Amino acid sequence: MWDSLKKYGYSIQFIDWLLVCLPLVILLLAALYFVLTKWMYPSHIKNSAGVNDYINEEISELGKLSVAEKRVLFIFCATASLWIGKGLINQLRLINLNDSMIAILGALALFATTSGVKNDKKPIMLLDWHDTSKMAWGILLLFGGGIALANTLEKVGVMSQIGDWLAGFSHIGVIGLVLLIVVISIFLSELMSNVAQVIVLAPVLAALADALHMDALMLGIPMTLAASAAAMMPMGTPPNAIVFSSGHIKLKDMLKAGFVMNIISIILITLFCLLVLPYVMSVIKK
């Protein structure tokens, strides 16, 4: 996606994205903490020395990292580093990595690495196929359905129709258009994969920006940020699916709290894109 922005004069690396969006993430996390613990679901639990002692005792019982835990940590760090630095690696033209390849390599490394423990003189791997039976396959299928839905909407032309529909709101100005895109993106992302949504909507909004003689990032970044802020539905993002698969959260509670967070996200993302983004774009433009 970012490679396509070079024609607009931008060269955005992971570190650029991190520095730009980290303050917004901190604000959203603070808002999430306030909404969940102070407003909608306050625990009313005061500080307890007994609870602190229990937690410290449980932490101490964990002991030092085992050999298996150290190897899992190393594979995780290596996988995350490849995701972060794949752009620099691909510039060497020795290999062309993508996110799917890196994820598969990480999984294969877990299957192929021993845990340092033997069973009947046979080494036990960090991950074996029996462990996969414990995964929440229903949630994974639900999330995969979101990706399939986005691809289907793209093939039948729904996404292009959304772009044409948005073009009809060009008269409402930049503020209204950015707000409209954020609202549509955040609620659309509740029903499909955010990655798939960004992939199919980015070219549509880029073409719309060109038609309106606007900077493509003024429409693309609000859509991208909003696509990652869906909090209502389990299929919205993998973290939503992981939390819901625990079985401790009811769907109605997730919808209720998620809707409130969506409204807060719409306000913060819109303000960020209107007030901060223009200055940032002038800095990173080459």
Describe what is shown at a glance:
By secondary structure, this protein is mostly helical. It has helices spanning 14-40, 49-62, 67-91, 99-112, 137-155, 158-167, 173-188, 194-211, 217-227, 238-244, 251-275, 277-284, and strands at residues 114-119, 122-125.
Order of helices and strands: HHHHEEHHHHHHHH
Structural class designation: mainly alpha
Number of strands: 2
Number of structurally distinct domains: 2
Radius of gyration, CA atoms, in whole angstroms: 22 Å
Tell me the distance between the termini.
17 Å
Low-confidence stretches: none
- How is the main sheet built? 2 strands, antiparallel
The helicity comes to 55-70%
Strand content: under 5%
Descriptive report:
- The chain has helices spanning 14-40, 49-62, 67-91, 99-112, 137-155, 158-167, 173-188, 194-211, 217-227, 238-244, 251-275, 277-284; strands at residues 114-119, 122-125.
- The protein has 286 residues and is mainly alpha-helical.
- The chain folds into two domains: 2-45 and 135-284, no CATH class; 64-134, no CATH class.
- The radius of gyration is 22 Å and the shape is globular.
Give a quick set of tags describing it.
286 residues; two-stranded antiparallel ribbon; mainly alpha
